[in-house]
Amino acid sequence: MSLTLMRRNANYRWLVGASGVSNLGDGVSALAFPWLATLITRDPVLISLTAVAGRLPWLLLTLPAGVWTDRIDRRRLMIRADVFRMVMTLGVVAMVLAAPPPVASPGLAIGALCAVAFLLGSAEVLRDNAAQTVLPSVVRPADLEAANGQMWSIERIMGEFVGPPLAGVLIALSLPAPFVFDAVTFALAAGLIWMMVVPTRIAPARRSFRVELMEGLIWIWRHVMIWRLAIILGVINACAMAALTMLVLFSQDVLGLGAVGHGLLLTCGAVGGVIGGMIAPAVARRVGGTRSLWVAFVLFSGCYALIGVATSPVVVGVALFVESLGAMLWNVVTVSFRQRAIPDDLLGRVNSVYRFFGWGMMPVGALAGGLIVAWAEPSLGRETALRLPYWSAAAVLAGTGLIGVLTIRLPVSGAKK
Fold this sequence. Notes:
Growth Hormone, Chain: A
């Protein structure tokens, strides 16, 4: 990974540093939250509800978040979102200390956990949309693939390579410890964003909320390739969440892993993401954006099929590694394409519409994963039921990939549309 961009661009360094720190905390909580849920209950539907609550804001708040992002100071929005996430995470610490599991009322405890997850997810929607929107004003258009690749590699290193194993260690020390750590990372991330000096941006004159929102909807409707990518991303993310939500139970009940082992399994995915972030710009330049997305489809479907038949943690780790590599290839190509194509004064709104379709399906997928297991377990048994979300994801993504091969054609990198 070339560090030239970070050396010459201080604002980019602060942005990458903040993303890395906050993603370290996210990586810790990504293991700690579902693990806490499994200590409260073993019901797959209740466990899936915590993931649904955390992702539901991407369905409910993404569209208005785009309008807000284009209206106000994006840097200030990121700071406020990180401070809010710090406060909410400290609330989880208070919950665990007040009523450590096992608890007398699992449903009530899961409900409280879902409420906090929803608030954290709401702040994440605002923060992430602002961060992705501010990047083109921090780096040159020619540097977007490199900037996105570096940023996502660092996020993967911190969020999935370092975070999950660290969470396992922290859980072994004390159940509240990972949430305390997460709160500290949000505070540090807010401080790093505060150090940025973003060029002054003259926001367009405010009109009615509906008018501004419709401008984003109309723009993306007129750009067929972008909304087509958004719909396909929604299917990809729904399948991914169905699989990921049940991975904590798959690790425990099928692979026989503890918290540390599960964390190491997630780390395998992180390694693939890191390598993917480093090589994706070069792959996209060599084979082109369109063919890069075709490769990603093959990796997605094949890896979920492999997890569905695996009995060894090593095999599952390899599959997660390759799937993450494909995800980074998809992200680098599609996000860089959008950042070039969308005008700056519409970037927040169009990104929010894109994410409404692309990310709004994540809570649907998370709930589907739990419902599939709960429906199949009485007749097929626990192990087969836990494999079913992976087989389903492989089949759906194989069909989606075929549609993508027939319909996706990206312009040459660097072209403006």
